[in-house]
Amino acid sequence: LVDGYRSRLPDARVPDVHLALYGDLLFAEYSSRLAEAHARAGGRTFLSRFDRRRGGFGRRVRAWHCADIP
């Protein structure tokens, strides 16, 4: 699993790779499972992924809580 993330983020530091993996396991995995179950039950289902990056700080500041709210 970590090798897959390292290949997707070749220039990332080890902590950044682990943070990406942990974030996906904590949030994305369960959201995907819930959406799939909802769709199988016949519900209209939509998923989105918000990957905003801010300028400055070497563009290292990624999406933060409530960043998608105008």
Beta-strand percentage range: under 5%
Structural class, from helix and strand content? mainly alpha
Largest beta-sheet characterization: none
Low-confidence parts, pLDDT < 50 over ≥5 residues?
A: none
Mean pLDDT reading: 84
Termini separation: 34 Å
Q: Tally the helices.
A: 2
Alpha carbon gyration radius:
15 Å
H/E element sequence:
HH
Say how many strands there are: 0
Task: Give the SSE map.
Elements: H1 2-8, H2 14-40
What do you see in this structure?
There is one protein chain. The protein has a domain at 2-43. The longest helix has 27 residues, at 14-40. The chain is flat, with a radius of gyration of 15 Å. The model has no long low-confidence stretch (mean pLDDT 84). It is an all-alpha fold. It has helices spanning 2-8, 14-40. The protein is built from two helices and no strands.
Give a concise summary:
The chain has 70 residues and is mainly α. It has helices at residues 2-8, 14-40.
Question: Which key phrases capture this entry?
Answer:
mainly alpha, flat, 49% helix, 70 residues
